[in-house]
């Protein structure tokens, strides 16, 4: 893969360019300062970022320490577009706790370990997808590409060192495209890449949540490759500087307790959480809810062996993009503080939570159209009728289409509809999916390639548009 470092070099990407800071240079005497780096638009870090900040959970937890006779604390939040500048600031000992995706976490551990004061530990997870659906490749709406193979010889925008870039490298390699020469990667921040795609300066964009969903929702792109095809877990997590947390262990415990507070809120009130995150990030609530609604991201703080193993498998990615020092993953991962936070805050059995692989926020309730309770959350979706106070559950794809059909007959607009991919389980926009009719059944797929795979295995199946499916579905 030919990497063209445009518009900035990889080294320059590890700077403060493009960040927004909410900071104060004045820290009162006797006050402990904690600087938190987060990414407001990387919405699977919300329980350690946007949602956590908006709800004030960290400040509340620190205030409790002060009220018990402890020190006073000052929290500074710094918002960035990607994980790279957070790592740069941690290397400079200017950020104490940060959150980012799995590939940036690897770079963080490798970069920071050179100095004792900057060395970090991975202390918790924010959210994960067991198959890798948090990263995707999109193309322009008028593109003729139908699979990742069609990108050979093309220009692709990605943030080098990001989770989206890591997925691109793996996808190309599996497709038999030389990851060193097969495509030309332009190293761009997500919003720059989005503009480049829209102006046809690049033929594809590979990014992390929520960029693919946002561009597709805005009709500025269509999905080409679902990261879930890799079948490899991808996640976002929290890193903390070891030197800082050794000096202020109570701050790390307060942060993890606050993250657990935010995780509980996200699980119990996903729709309300999506509104808070939308307001804090500037993203449409429909896009936030795509990923963070029931059946989307698994918001689970625990450091699961499957995620650690995936991180170990990704180490070779470091070697493919630059000269990075070897990283001992087992030493980098430190689950002791989170285990302590579970125990001290009455969260439950940490080992049982680690062992669980079930999405803690499934689609539930009763489908008002098909008139039955949700029996299989893996098939269930949601329909958000404009004017309704919240989305309504749909037991399966057919029930979702019937709900859309009923809304149309009543002259109501469907604000958004969400349905899991029939092959990979990825939660996606129903009206942006590739639909197949097989007999009386209608099946949604995230990509044309997935729909084609199904049709090849089922010769009687035919491709239909979403509007056709809505019109033709029968009780």
UniProtKB/TrEMBL annotation:
InterPro entries associated with the record: SsuA/THI5 (IPR015168)
Keywords annotated in UniProt: Signal
PANTHER family noted in UniProt: ABC TRANSPORTER SUBSTRATE-BINDING PROTEIN, ALIPHATIC SULFONATES-BINDING PROTEIN-RELATED
Name of the protein this chain belongs to: NitT/TauT family transport system substrate-binding protein
Signal peptide: 1-17
Lineage of source species: Bacteria, Bacillati, Actinomycetota, Actinomycetes, Mycobacteriales
Domain SsuA/THI5-like, chain residue ranges per copy: 119-273
SUPFAM superfamilies: NosL/MerB-like, Periplasmic binding protein-like II
Pfam families: NMT1
């Amino acid at each position: 893969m030919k990497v063209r470092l445009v518009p900035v070099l990889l080294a320059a990407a590890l700077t403060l360019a493009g960040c927004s800071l909410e900071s104060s240079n004045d820290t009162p005497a006797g006050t402990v300062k904690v600087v938190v780096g987060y990414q407001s638009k990387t919405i699977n870090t919300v329980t350690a970022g946007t949602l956590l900040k908006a709800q004030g959970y960290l400040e509340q937890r620190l205030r409790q320490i002060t009220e018990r006779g402890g020190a006073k604390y000052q929290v500074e939040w710094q918002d960035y577009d990607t994980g790279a500048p957070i790592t740069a600031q941690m290397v400079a000992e200017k950020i104490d706790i940060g959150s980012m995706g799995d590939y940036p976490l690897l770079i963080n551990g490798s970069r920071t370990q050179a100095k004792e004061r900057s060395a970090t530990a991975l202390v918790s997870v924010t959210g994960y997808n067991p198959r890798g659906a948090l990263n995707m490749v999109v193309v322009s709406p008028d593109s003729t590409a139908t699979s990742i193979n069609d990108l050979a010889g093309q220009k692709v925008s990605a943030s080098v060192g990001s989770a989206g870039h890591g997925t691109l490298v793996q996808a190309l390699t599996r497709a038999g495209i030389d990851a060193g020469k097969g495509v030309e990667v332009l190293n761009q921040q997500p919003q720059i890449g989005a503009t480049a795609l829209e102006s046809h300066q690049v033929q594809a964009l590979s990014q992390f949540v929520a960029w693919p969903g946002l561009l597709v929702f805005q009709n500025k792109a269509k999905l080409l490759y679902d990261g879930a095809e890799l079948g490899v877990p991808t996640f976002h997590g929290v890193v903390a500087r070891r030197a800082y947390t050794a000096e202020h262990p109570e701050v790390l415990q307060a942060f993890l307790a606050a993250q657990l507070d935010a995780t509980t809120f996200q699980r119990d009130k996903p729709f309300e959480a999506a509104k808070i995150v939308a307001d804090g990030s500037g993203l449409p609530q429909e896009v936030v809810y795509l990923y963070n609604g029931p059946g989307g991201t698994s918001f689970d703080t625990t450091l699961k062996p499957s995620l650690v193993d995936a991180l170990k498998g990704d180490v070779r990615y470091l070697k493919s993009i630059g000269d990075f020092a070897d990283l001992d993953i087992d030493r980098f991962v430190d689950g002791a503080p989170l285990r302590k936070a579970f125990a001290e805050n009455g969260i439950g059995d940490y080992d049982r939570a680690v062992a669980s692989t079930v999405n803690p926020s499934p689609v539930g309730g009763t489908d008002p159209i098909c008139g039955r309770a949700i029996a299989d959350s893996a098939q269930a979706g949601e329909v958000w009728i404009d004017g309704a106070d919240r989305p309504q559950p749909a037991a399966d794809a057919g029930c979702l289409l019937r709900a859309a059909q009923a809304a149309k007959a009543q002259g109501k607009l469907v604000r958004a509809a969400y349905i899991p991919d029939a092959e990979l389980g990825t939660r996606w926009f129903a009206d942006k999916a590739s639909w197949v009719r097989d007999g009386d059944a209608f099946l949604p797929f995230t990509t044309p390639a997935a729909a084609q795979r199904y049709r090849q295995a089922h010769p009687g199946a035919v491709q239909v548009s979403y509007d056709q499916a809505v019109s033709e579905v029968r009780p």
